[in-house]
Predict the structure.
Amino acid sequence: MAKKTSKKESPQRGSALSKERDEKTLKKLIDLADEVAKKTFGGKDPRLEIPLRTKSNTIWESKKRILQMGDATSDRELFNLNQAKQFMQTMLHASIIRGLIDEGKTHSLRGVYYKAKHTVSGTKENTFEDQDESDPILEDLEVSLGVLREELHIFASKRGDLVGNITLVDKGDEIDCRRMGSGGYGIPSIVEPSVIQFKKCEAKFVLHVEKDTVWQRFNEDRFWEVNNCILTHGGGQPPRGVRRLLQRLNQELKLPIICLLDCDPWGHYIYSVIKQGSISLAFESSRLAIPDAKFLGVRAKDYKECDLSDAVKIDMNDNDVKRAKEIAAYPWFEGHKGWQREINTMLSNGFKMEVEALANEHTSYVTEEYVPQRLKARDWLE
Amino acid sequence: MSTLALDAPTRNEMSKKTSAPKVTAETMAAKQRDISVSEFFAKNRHLLGFDNPRKALLTTVKEAVDNSLDACEEAGILPDITVVIEDLQPERAASVKSSRYRITVVDNGPGIVRKQVENIFGRLLYGSKFHRLKMSRGQQGIGISAAGMYGLITTGKPMVIHTKPKTNQAAHHIELAMNTKTNRAEVTVDDETDDFPPGRLSGLGKGTRVETFLATRDYPTGTSVSIELEGRYQKGRGSVDEFLDLTAIANPHAKITFVPPTRESAAEEEDVPLLKQGKGAKDKVDDTDDEQTPDPRSLADPSLTQAAPTGPTVTTEQDGVIVFPRAVDELPPETKEIQPHPKGIELGILLQMLKDYELENKGGTLYTFLQEKFCRVSAATASGFCEKIGVTSRTKAGDIEPPQVEKLFQEFQEAKLAPPPTDCLAPIGVRQLLAGMLKGVRAEFYAASSRDAAIYRGRPFQIEAAIAFGGDLPSEDSARVIRFANRVPLLFQQSACSSFKAVTETAWKNYSLQQPRGSLPLGPLVIMLHMASVWVPFTSESKEAIADYDEIRKEMKLALMECGRKLGTYLRKRLKMKREAERRDVFERYIGEIAQAVSAINGTDAKKLYEALQAQARRHTAIADLQLDEDGKAIKDDDPADQDGVIIVQGASKEEPPSNEPESQARISSARGKRDADPFAQSKAEAAALKVSSIRDDEQPELIDTKPVKRLNKKGEKPKATTATKAEKPAKTTKAKSPEPAPSPPASKPAASSKLRMRLVNGKLERVDEPGLF
């Protein structure tokens, strides 16, 4: 599956891995290794320069309205007690990627983790203890080599489903997303134009919901059919594949992206990530962010407006409050009156609500009344 | 001083009787009479250290050994002392707590001329040491005669004395009993004998039948004292064994042989003495066969190495005979007697001195009196004093009026006078202290310091301190304080002793040790304090604690602080080295992975890259290779002089993989509990090889070279062996010695090199210069 492309390149043919692109990636890998060897033989400390994926190195580009990664880098040194292991892990992954490229295969994040995991000779220590150690190292390689994950022949596990009035071609197979039954079309990790092309689309917008359970509700009620749209979910924080697909739908098909997320800091954060990009993937924001995504709900005012029962309240704890205030201070929310009001209302409510709250009294209230009414009223936050 | 106490009972007696109606002044007068010192001490024997049977046994040994050492040193003889304790009731029931013992102490001293025997052994408060200001062990002339008196009281048996003052004449054999009423000896046997040392002693057991035990040729002159007494023999704190252990530490020039009784008295076993922590004493028995053989192979012999860690390194026990060998072949310098210092006397004493002087020299002038009877009074100073009190230099001492004496006394206090001379002191010396500690305490770090002489009450004194840290010392307990006064161990009343206070008042936390408020520091630490003085101010006649003079305590603290600083630096440095070694471990652990990964990517030669990376890792953690000195600076080679008063013994065995630990070190670990968590744990568990740092040659000019002594690695691994061989190399004179593996006569050992160095390599301690060994 892997494939990929930086935005200037034109889509490639379906399944074939681009030799040209592989050669470029390979060269970068070899340069990396050469640099380590050169420094070592030259009596200097081996060191990798890794662009910082931190908040401080994330720049809010108000013009483009997306988060982008700054120029700051950090050194990863072998002869630093805190970095030695990561240095080793980085080189280890680099060598595994080289192997994948040579073989022309792709591997999952977890697969790479297992491939790299072994006992360091002469010790009882493993090169990696769990996948959480491995994944960030791969991201480090992405950013420091300046290549995309798929160019490293790596894909992530699939998360998120799609259903709706659209027909796509996935690796040459035509997929009619109107006929996906109750399960939907699983959005793959890599959705670049070389893999997925949009063939036919009648939908007028995309409704992205937070999680699978809500998505099921909407699908069961044939919401996408009734309202002529595409229905997606990202299993909470949407993975790159879902975000990229949403962005393509938005940019290539000019479909508005409308989000139905929980009324809690986490929901707000998911919206923020879809809209502006995330700190850790700021280097990919131009591929992933959808600056004009809209936040339909759940809104803090809904408790009153929709006359919800007390049962839907989830008390906010200190952490939630703190998080909400942090989010309110994001540059793209900070000057936004609607969002300030929204978050303040939630804080003064003192409770959170999930999308399921809207189905509390009447199961299909959310699909039959709430969302259609809000859409009609264009009652959303941007 | 003790005589002053004699009045008290008299008055008590009087006041008691006043209430009885029939008593008149006359009847009372009939009962009032002199009390002999002997009677007084017979009743108050606890004042002399005979409170209970166990202590009586110890005190007797102690007094006899002190006398022997004093006599040998004064006569310029290297002491060779044998202590035999015979159990005279070996068949007694197990529950009987005390028994009758015969204590015999034989020395190779100058012997005693016949006519003095009764006085020395048969009278209390008779002696050569009371009336002078000279550094010696005995002071009061009470000790040995009191021991004889105690024996007489408890068993009715007289003291038996053999003494041989002339090489080619027969020894005197005298048996005497003290008459406590008269404080005089009654001689029951007085003849001559050629049987010296008494041959009977050689027939006691397997160990004593060896030819070297009490060989006649070793005792051209000498004295043997036997006292029978009721006592109790037990090991542990305050035991004869401990006393001899400690005496050996403080007197490295003495050889002491000890034949303990065949069985201990029934009673709870107390804690084991200083050196015998952990494993059973039986381990010790077999390792001494090749006494004379410094053969490296024997050092590596496993049986030997098993045993080595159990006991004092050089102290050996075989067939019931314990030998504390001589570690140093030089006697302490001869000490000089001094006159009192003007600032150190009291008014009454001054009056008495004037009176005595008048008697001695009819018509002697004050001017000459001042110069002759005091130290640090020159002609000019003396005439200055005369002037100040309004007399001339020709005024006779007898003509001075009491008010003038008082004035003189005040002038003494105000005058600016040089402190008393200090050549009257014979400190043990830094190097000897270290030798003694090394011999007796199994630790990994030793430091010693010797203060300059100071003055209390006009009397010069000098404080020395030494500490031993780590190694086999128990890490859970408080530090152990061992105290000495004029080389005599002080075993009782620790908390009353100035030295104990000095230890608790020292801020050990500054030196990376834990210390509960107002207590001894915690950890594997032995602290030794020695006070040398012409007159040690004991708190009682039994000489168990040093009185708490501010000047003394201050000096003690300063000495301890000096040792503490060295220890603190060492500990900090060690910790740092350990951290660096761990860092290197981390780096080196990953280097292999990195080399392979890089190689897989770009085809670099993995091996070459590995080596290059490893070289860099070593460069980055170079500090782990540093050798320690006490200032925490890197030791430069060929600069032995930069270390002073410190010995570091470091563990050299390989770091054992954690999985092996339980078996291989089970015994040690179990005894040490949490030690594994201790940053110092590793080296404790490990074998020790030795580095003895050198000591400046000019430090103790009079104490020249020490005998080479080797010390066994705990596990007896090869490093040890090389230590021995290495010792053959250019022995720099006066450099430190390494202790001896077995009880070999010191003279047979090759001189040890002074520079056996260890370093931490990669978390393991390795011998420097011996790359092949590990």
Notes: The CA atoms of residues 203 and 209 of chain B lie 6 Å apart. The mean pLDDT of chain B is 71. Chain B touches chain A through 23 residues (CB under 8 Å).
